[in-house]
Amino acid sequence: FAPFIAGIGSMRYRKFATYNVFGAVVWVAVFLVLGYFFGNLRFVQQNFVLVILAIITISLMPVLIEFLREKHKR
User: Fold this and answer.
1) Which residues in the chain land under pLDDT 50?
2) Residues 8, 33: Cα–Cα separation, whole Å
3) DSSP 49-65
């Protein structure tokens, strides 16, 4: 999405690349820090399997909802 908008807005490549790299570094840093603190919670350490199952379930919910919507339309 961002490259198309940058192209439409005539953003120079150097500026786009700078923002892109900066955004990637910030994204990775934020999730590394959050992962570190989340992983150190006692509940997460004691119930890691449940946490993984919750992440998988939440990730699959949009697919399931869309499937049910399409099935309901027919």
Assistant:
1) none
2) 35
3) HHHHHHHHHHHHHHHHH
